[in-house]
Amino acid sequence: MKWPCGLLFLFLGQTVAYTIPTVSFEYPTMRGFRASIPDTPGLQMFAFHARLNKPFERFEEGDYTEDVTEPDAEGRWTYDTNRPALPNGTIIYYWVYVQFANEGYWLTDKKHTVIRSRASVAPRTTTTTTPKPTTTTAPPCLPTLTTYNGGQSTCAGKLIFEDTFEQGSFAPKWQHEVRIPLDTDSAEFVSYQSLPGNSYIAAGRLVIVPTLVTQEAGYNDERIRTGELNLVGCTSPTNNPYECQRKAARSTILPPVVSAKLNTQHYFRFRYGRIEIRAKLPKGDWIFPQLFLQPYENYYGYADYASGQMWIAYILANQMLTGGDGKQIDGHRLRGGVLISNSGPARSHFLRSNLKDDHFGNEFHVYGLVWTPDQILLTVDGFQYGALRSNFRQHAQQHNLTQANLWNAEAPLAPFDREFYVSLGVGVGGVKDFPDQSVTGPSKTPKPWNNTSPKAEYFFYQNRNTWYRTWTEPELTVDYVRVYAL
Questions:
Q1: Exposure winner among 75, 135, 193, 403, fewest CB in 10 A?
Q2: Is 182 exposed, middle or buried (CB count within 10 Å of its CB: 0-12, 13-18, 19+)?
Q3: CA angle at residue 274 from 42 to 237, to 5 degrees?
Q4: Tell me: the pLDDT tens digits for 30-50?
């Protein structure tokens, strides 16, 4: 989606009163440039993205970019770089995002032509020096707050993890989860397994796809209702036998869907950094992708997300889904943020949304999360749509969440002050995030189960002839995963 040049919009598409001022360009030195806007009471962030001689297609991250979070001493919000040489005639293509009074505003499809004059740069001095032998030095390793794999240090801006899936193998970076999810998560109506039909690498991309269990040999309707499932190599994080085996009886059936979930738990984890995942999300009723960061050691506990969980990208993948309150909640709404509880309104309190005209499963997007000791930022295609700067411990105590008493009182973002690993998967159904009384599709078909019903999974399975027809593109396709130090 492309906004007309010169128009400014709220994130939800409403016209707003605030107008971003014209961006001023200066050339204080012989290299680089300075871009700025004047300060205004209520202004919270000035995000600047620029390229040289190359227009933006959408909201990609620029080659010269920064999220400026405070004005300078002269009362301007300023991006400053001395990196590029800029001969006259260079075109600076740029877009701007401003957060003002907790709302977001854009300035898009802009360009500036560099015309330097002698007066536009600092006076030049001429000196005579004796030539010295040419020496080559390694680039400096600037300090960073980022650590990885048990506290190892690194350099600011360094790429510390990457997988472009060109090697054609999961090992050694990824391992499969093998388990039946319980209500400690969303009690998804799946078993996560390592079957080759549910997760594979093809053409340099990771593909995770859910399938009906009846497509597996030996499974039929009778076995789902009366049979038994034992998962060999079960990876239950708490060695809970209910995550490793299930016997069907009465209202309990075997999980009707098989899917996959992979993680870097035994290869890579980190604390603080920036992660980018280029992916095409699934489409189909009652499916949701899981692009998450999970706590490596569950230091603060396992139950009720005591150690937290970060969502890089998440949608309810229905083509059309409306909640009981009439709000659109389908695959046109991207969500990201953090979970510090699994129950009630607290589960979604720290999730942020981005609405789009197109379903997020229609094409590839770059989903990002920036994690610092003071804030968590959420991006899509380089555009920031959410920021979390709360004291989670204080909020949790106000809502009587007992896990808050365990969190580090000296870390405002605790429990997000420990190492986390990358997790990618596809879930189906569950009893947490598809609200009751919601309706799907142009015919407004009601959701076939109730989240509080002990037969929720059974009613979902009974309706398979309806929802399975919508699974035309149920796969999550991942092009790359990259993690950078701050």
A1: 135
A2: middle
A3: 120
A4: 678 999 999 999 899 899 999
